[in-house]
Design goal:
Helices cover 70% and strands 5% of the residues. The chain contains four helices and two strands. Keywords: Membrane, Transmembrane, Transmembrane helix.
Length: 122
């Protein structure tokens, strides 16, 4: 199911979403200050390419001071907008029975979009 789900996901928007995250992350990496945020955006892009069959794992770095500060900055600058987009897509997809698995994947990406530092999608 995860292979078929990922293929359908990629065909109907996952590829565009992932590439948007990756290109935005590369643009953020052009400045020294933006590198940590660019890396997290690229991580989100890779996660958005194939979300089926993967789980969010909190690493030991998530409770560190730097991760908490960067998560707060990310939440204020980028995270809440990205999370709202994923929530909106999940609501739209949840209207139909066929869209429910895809809505679940968007909901899986919301915590990663809000607090990406110290979290991985494995």
């Amino acid at each position: 199911m995860s292979f078929l789900g990922n293929v359908i996901w990629l065909l109907f928007g996952g590829f565009v979403t992932g590439m948007g995250y990756i290109l935005g992350g590369l643009a953020m990496c052009l400045t020294i200050i933006g590198i940590p945020f660019g890396v997290q955006s690229i991580k989100l892009g890779v996660a958005a390419l194939t979300p089926f069959g993967r789980e969010i794992v909190v690493t030991e770095r998530a409770s560190g001071f730097v991760a908490v500060v960067f998560d707060a900055l990310w939440l204020i600058l980028f995270g809440w907008e990205i999370a709202l987009v994923h929530l909106g897509h999940a609501l739209i997809l949840a209207i139909t029975i066929v869209g429910l698995p895809f809505a679940k994947q968007h909901l899986k990406l919301v915590p990663l979009a809000l607090f990406p530092f110290g979290r991985e999608l494995n």
